[in-house]
From TrEMBL:
Protein name, entry field: RNA-directed DNA polymerase
Biological process (GO), any one: DNA integration
One Gene Ontology MF term: RNA-directed DNA polymerase activity
InterPro entries referenced in this protein's UniProt entry, alphabetically: Integrase_cat-core, Integrase_H2C2, Retrovirus_Pol_polyprotein, RNaseH-like_sf, RNaseH_sf
Cross-referenced PANTHER family: INTEGRASE CATALYTIC DOMAIN-CONTAINING PROTEIN (PTHR37984:SF9), PROTEIN CBG26694 (PTHR37984)
Lineage of origin: Eukaryota, Metazoa, Ecdysozoa, Arthropoda, Hexapoda
Stretch forming the signal peptide: none
SUPFAM superfamilies: Ribonuclease H-like (SSF53098)
Superkingdom field: Eukaryota
Enzyme class: transferase
Coiled-coil annotated spans: none
Record-annotated Integrase catalytic domain positions: 191-271
Length: 271
């Protein structure tokens, strides 16, 4: 049952359909497919051994983009939530040279995927996100983290509109180094200490513990009212030694109503 439940839950949108699609490209693809009644069937890659000849034959002459693609690109740049002034900064800082040797060293990491990028209105777009140059990344990080969201939510917010290499690492470092987030982080809040009730008279409530000093055990008893400390040297760590020393202290100051200890194990068989 687990083998059936897990994939059904993971691919729920594909089983029932995706009625709420926010991506403009997916919306258009869904509209195109509405006039068809499709029956999808999975075919393993080992069964697809023959490649299509036409797909291997590339075109030598440049092909102009379809008007529908141009309109889609315009829609992408239109609805990305960036101010007009910031878009002007992007247009000034972005742009591809004609040859690889003219590419800046820090921008060469884009060269292998340059065909996945396209230019619209002097902005470099990757899928439905604007590529941010290095000179403006810090400003974008600050804008994304202005609400002091966590790492996961900040990354999710960024993936809706912007892109650059190692963007996730930059966001993680910024959120982890934010002083405001660190100060208000739930992990840095500690429960207050619960104090003991103050007793009404001396030796009504006492605490006891075993102290080791220079290899020798001592019994330490503290009064919770006066903070008076009594120390008795023990011949050995045994219940009898602790009882005898406690009896000597309680005979002098009185028998307490409450005694606190730390559950220190004692060898009761040692006489």
């Amino acid at each position: 049952m687990l083998a059936l439940s897990f994939p059904a839950d993971k691919f729920e949108k594909f089983i029932w359909g995706m009625p709420a699609i926010t991506n403009n490209r997916l919306k258009k693809l869904k509209i195109k497919l509405m006039r068809f009644q499709l029956a999808l069937e999975y075919l393993p890659g080992k069964l697809m051994t023959i490649a299509d000849l036409l797909s291997r034959q590339t075109l030598q002459d440049p092909v102009e983009d379809e008007q529908e693609i141009i309109e889609y690109v315009r829609e992408v740049t239109k609805y990305i939530s960036l101010s007009s002034d910031f878009k002007m900064d992007l247009r000034r800082e972005t742009g591809w040279p004609d040859e690889k040797q003219n590419v800046q060293i820090k921008a060469k990491q884009y060269w292998q995927v340059r065909h996945e990028l396209f230019m619209e209105d002097n902005l470099i777009i990757k899928t439905d996100r604007i590529v941010i140059p290095e000179s403006l990344r810090q400003e974008v990080l600050l804008k994304l983290h202005v609400a002091h969201l966590g790492i996961v939510k900040t990354k999710a917010k960024a993936r809706q509109s912007v892109h650059w290499p190692e963007m996730s690492n930059g966001m993680s470092n910024m959120v982890q180094g934010c002083r405001a987030c660190e100060r208000h982080n739930a992990a840095n809040h500690y429960d207050p200490l619960t104090p003991h009730d103050i007793p009404d008279w001396p030796y009504q409530k006492v605490g006891a513990d075993i102290l080791d000093w220079e290899g020798k055990p001592y019994l330490v008893v503290v009064d919770y009212l006066s903070k008076w400390i009594e120390v008795r040297k023990l011949p050995r760590k045994s219940s009898k030694s602790v009882n005898d020393s406690s009896l000597s202290i309680f005979t002098t100051y009185g028998i307490p109503e409450t005694l606190f200890g730390d559950n220190n194990p004692l060898n009761s068989r040692v006489s």
